[in-house]
Write a structure and sequence with these properties.
The chain has 123 residues and is an alpha/beta fold. Helix content is 24%, strand content 28%. The protein is globular, with a radius of gyration of 14 Å.
Length: 123
């Protein structure tokens, strides 16, 4: 069985715990919907990063609140590139699956869709 990467990103309305957790849950639920075979028990790990203006809460907490209690989770800060999206939350899920990398559906919501315009063209 291969480990496949599932990527996604979303922008929180502001740097408040409620906004960050809500945006992160929205992103994770959208990834689950786009990849219906994905289940928490099949995740090797999840890596969250945030833009340097998010400091109120770890986005991994949203995954814990969704019941991902056995998934190893990690959070980090993105490199503060000039002109990058503010309040941006990114995730990389490492999924143990038989699916091919080409069949994985990555999810970029709202303003974060600008990070991967190539994905819109392929739909």
């Amino acid at each position: 069985m291969a480990v496949r990467g599932v990527r996604g990103a979303v922008v929180a309305a502001e740097d408040r715990s409620e906004a960050v957790l809500s945006a992160t849950k929205e992103l994770l639920l959208a990834i689950l919907k786009a990849n219906p075979d994905l289940a928490a028990e099949d995740l090797a790990s999840a890596w969250f990063t945030v833009s340097d203006d998010i400091r109120s809460v770890y986005p991994a907490r949203a995954a814990r609140e969704m019941g991902w209690s056995s998934v190893p989770l990690m959070c980090a800060q993105e490199i503060p590139v000039t002109g990058s999206l503010p309040h941006c939350i990114r995730v990389l899920l490492n999924w143990n699956t038989e699916h091919s990398q080409k069949s994985i559906q990555h999810v970029y919501l709202g303003a974060a869709a600008s990070l991967r315009p190539d994905l819109e063209k392929s739909k």
